[in-house]
Structure formats: structure tokens, C-alpha cells
Amino acid sequence: MPEKVIELSHISVFFNQDGQTLKAVNDVSLDVEKGDIYGVVGYSGAGKSTLVRVINLLQRPTAGKVVVNGETLFEKTDQSTAIIEAKKLRPKRREIGMIFQHFNLLDEKTVIQNVEFALKHRKLKEKQITAKAQELLELVGLGDRGQAYPAQLSGGQQQRVAIARALANDPEILISDEATSALDPKNTVQILELLKRLNRELNLTVVLITHEMDAVKRIANKVAVMSEGQIVERGTLLDIFTNAQFPLTKKLVGTESDSQKAMAILKNDHAFDNQADQSILHLTYRGSSISEPVTTKLYEDFSVETSIVYGNVDVLRDTPVGTLFVIMTGAKNGRQQAIQYLKAHDVTVTEVGLEAVKND
Ligand SMILES: Nc1ncnc2c1ncn2[C@@H]1O[C@H](COP(=O)(O)OP(=O)(O)OP(=O)(O)O)[C@@H](O)[C@H]1O
């Protein structure tokens, strides 16, 4: 059984704003397992930051239960409220590192002093603190920049220092709240790859809050989509990308734009006669499970012709995932058998109604 490191149950966070109740987080439950890189995505104001601030009780919930590494930090029921004692919460918080969009480094201190600062509370000798800080800088690829000042570093390098500092107390969990939002594309990719490496090498569990689906696509294994204080859809990265149900998810993952492009092509496509012997299919598949021989096979075995209207390939973590919109022409029975064949070969098949083409 995978070990649950974060268990949020029925969390609500309500704020009072000008006499009105703002439901920033509304009855959200979320479990994160050891070694996950759990992407929490949604537009600004969806409640992502508020939800993750609950994990280490930087934000106290209005209702719900917070368990980290098996220990209950907070539980509020109708009858009572239980909160972990302050002296126990402090070390618990150290199990959870955080990085943000703003790096929050101390400008007047050198890079290594910034990292050492996070180790000061430990009963370590000066020398040990310096050695540990140096080790952390090496881990994030900045072993030779310890004597520089933050202003002398690029944004990406400053975020690396912030990551080294967040790891100073050997946390099991790292919360990344929009950590790449202020970075250019190159630095964004480098920071995401660093998080992926730390996840792999240190078995660090990462909660990745972002409004950028590309970030999630690159490193997350699981995704929760938030809208108006609630999780509207969740699943493995592959599920969310190949089988999104909620309109916002479709928009975020690009299914909506793929579908719009395919429909625009179909409207002007003479191969599509809108006849009773034709189906429009939306296929998604992993790796290279669909290739030329498949269309040949469908023709030979089921007497259906498959013509590709639109295709796109995304890379999820390291796996290519393809999207195809095809017109399948042939007898109803043959088309049904061909669809069964595709499904049996790990292809997700969705029939697109003809209305979609007419009304789009
Ligand atoms: N301390 C607070 N007091 C009052 N309202 C708050 C407070 N913190 C957050 N909110 C409100 O709660 C809602 C959710 O905010 P939150 O920051 O969690 O969203 P988000 O999805 O992280 O978006 P962003 O990326 O813009 O921060 C917003 O409407 C915000 O204005």
C-alpha cells in the first residue's frame, strides 16, 4: 500500500469579506502519497494557495481534518476543535519545505548565508552548518556560487537558492506555490527538472501549485483541477490528459482546442459526407500504439477506412501521448468491431456526435 503523507479531509476555508462569506476552499479532500508530484492547477483565485497553506496550518481551516505523516495536526467537528500544540507544530512544519513565486532571499547576505540561516535553529557547530549549506548548494547545482549575493544571480538561480534553503531541514514534502511563474521558459524548465530530480533522488513528495498546465505535464504524476474553491476533477496525469470530463480541464489540457481545430477542418473536409456509414472518432493513445499498420489492419480485418483529420502529440512526463481525430467509413458492424479492437489496444475512443460538426 502506498504511504499517504498528506491527508486533507473535507477542508473548508471561509473568509469574511465586507460582511459576506467568501468560500476560498469549500469541502475539499485530497490525499498525497509518498513520492507523488501532485499538480494542483486552476486559474487565479481558485483557492490553490489557500488549500496548500492548510497543510502546515499556515492557514487554519474553517472545517475539516489535516493529517501529515499519520499525525493529526487539526480536526474540527461540530462538537470540537483539536489543534496540535505549538511546540509540536514547529518540528512538523520543518518536514514541509515551501517555495514561492518570489524567492524571498535576504539581499544583504550571501547565497551560502541564506541557506545557513535556515539551519541556525539546529544545535550544530558553525562548521557543520557551513558544510550542510554547501552540500545543499551542490545539490541544486550552485556549489560554486556560495559567495555571490542574490542580486548577482539570475531568477532561476535565485529560485535554486530558495530550494536549497527549503531543503535545509531534510523535509519529506516540498510545496511549490507558483515557483516558476516569474521565470522565463528556459529557467522554468530547469527548475521543473530540478524538482523532478529531487523527487527521484530524495524520494521527496512534491505538491506543485500552478496555473501552467505545461509545468504539470512535464513533471507531475497526479493532477487535481481546482475551480471556485473545489476540486472539480482529479486523476493520474494520463487520465486527466486523455479523458478529461470537466470543461475547465478540457480547456487547460488543450482537448478543447484540439477538438475545435478538428471540427474546423471537418466542416471543410469533403471526405466527410455525413453519411450513415461514417463515424468521427477522437482517439488518444500512449507511445506509438497507433501507426500506419493499424489503419491497414482495420481495413483488412473490419473493412473500414480510417482517414486522419487532425493529429497532435504531447509529451507527458517522458511519455508521448497522441491525439487523433479520424473519420471511419464502413458498415456499422465493422466500425463497432474496429472500435473494440482499438480499445483493446489501449486507445481511448470517443465518438464525436455529428451535431458537434454542424453546430461548432
Ligand atoms: N487572507 C485572506 N483573506 C480574505 N480573502 C482571502 C485571503 N486569502 C485568500 N483569499 C481569497 O480566497 C480566494 C482564493 O485565493 P487563493 O490565493 O487561494 O487562490 P489561488 O488559486 O492560489 O490563486 P492565486 O494564484 O491568484 O493566488 C481568492 O478570492 C482570494 O482573494
TrEMBL record:
GO terms for molecular function: ATP binding; ATP hydrolysis activity. The keyword Membrane applies. Keywords: Amino-acid transport, ATP-binding, Cell membrane, Membrane, Nucleotide-binding, Translocase, Transport. Residues 8-253 form the ABC transporter domain. Transmembrane segments: none annotated. Coiled coil: none annotated. CDD domains: ABC_MetN_methionine_transporter. One of its GO terms (biological process) is amino acid transport. InterPro entries: AAA+_ATPase, ABC_transporter-like_ATP-bd, ABC_transporter-like_CS, ACT-like_dom_sf, MetN_ABC, MetN_ABC_transporter-like, NIL_domain, P-loop_NTPase. It holds the Pfam family NIL. The keyword Cytoplasm does not apply. SUPFAM superfamilies: ACT-like (SSF55021), P-loop containing nucleoside triphosphate hydrolases (SSF52540). This is ABC transporter, ATP-binding protein. The lineage of its organism: Bacteria, Bacillati, Bacillota, Bacilli, Lactobacillales.
